Amino acid sequence: MKSVILAEGKKIDSLHIGEHPVPVPEKGEVRVRLKAHTLNHIDLWVLTGSPAYSVPLPHVMGSEGAGEVDLLGEGLDPAFSFKPGDRVVLSPGQGCLVCELCRSGFESLCPSYRVLGGHLSGVFSEYVCLPPSRLLLVPPNVDPLLASSVTLAGATAHQGLVVRGEARPGERWLVVGASGGVGHLASLLGKVLRLDVYGTYGPEKKRTILSRSMDIPLVSHNDPDWPEQVMKLSGKLFDGVLDTVGGATIPRVLPMLRKGGRAVVVGETTGSLTQFPTRELFGRQISLHGVYLAHRSDILAMLEWVSRGSLRPIINNMGVLTSIDILKGAYRRMLERDFVGKLGFVWG
After folding, report:
1. In terms of residue numbers, what domain contains 85?
2. Are 57 and 8 spatial neighbours (Cβ–Cβ below 8 Å)?
3. Is the same domain home to 274 and 232?
């Protein structure tokens, strides 16, 4: 079988496609034949040697994937009833599943929480063996690429907007970084939830694609006065902000919130340094939430919206991964932010 391997240094040029024997599931595992994968910013952090994802080399890349059950190992937990042929998606993050945090729905706070492709061996392979707790059934009308796209980015959007942000119909929300993986899914989800959604994006060339995919007011956050532009379009302060960019945007978005508003930060794709406006925080009693990935329930919720046809992720399909150059080019596009939505590929 083929796998995407990172070796000999954490950089894009160290990627190659390796050949390995098809794995045999150990006791309590399920083998999945993978059909499609989508890329995530965690991949870039692994490739650039982020201390948060200090994986040993060689390392199999990738956190997101979907396929079908291929073979069941012995001694499977009877709580799971998977069978060969079941269409499944992988749950990238998982805790111990038994502690109070995991049982109460706060799995990503578990000290044992680990992410496939980030802390553990990844899933960019034709076959993987995993415990059934990392598998979720995919509705029959959902394409594997669409399913893969909502496992990490989409679930994070749901956790940030619905669970932590407690967004309610009729509220006005700003999504900073609406062209990225999490951001565009949060914007689409916001429309489904009947929010009044506004968005920001980077390079001007992204505007046409975004405008075609979602009918929301848009401003480029590359413009120095973008907060003023957003407020001019909105005409009033926001109930909530979901920020996927982080860093220098934080002190600029908090003043855009009404008293008692909510700010949800889900990433720092432009760096972590910032001067924090504490007066804005306590003076207007703003709630600030940090979201790191999500839970199985968030994935299931997003799959349901996709299955209903209410939400359609933007996916740039790179096609069949016949050459590692296809994937190297995709990661360079991610570094240069030269795409909108998600990037994905399939196995032939």
Report:
1. 2-138+314-346
2. yes
3. yes
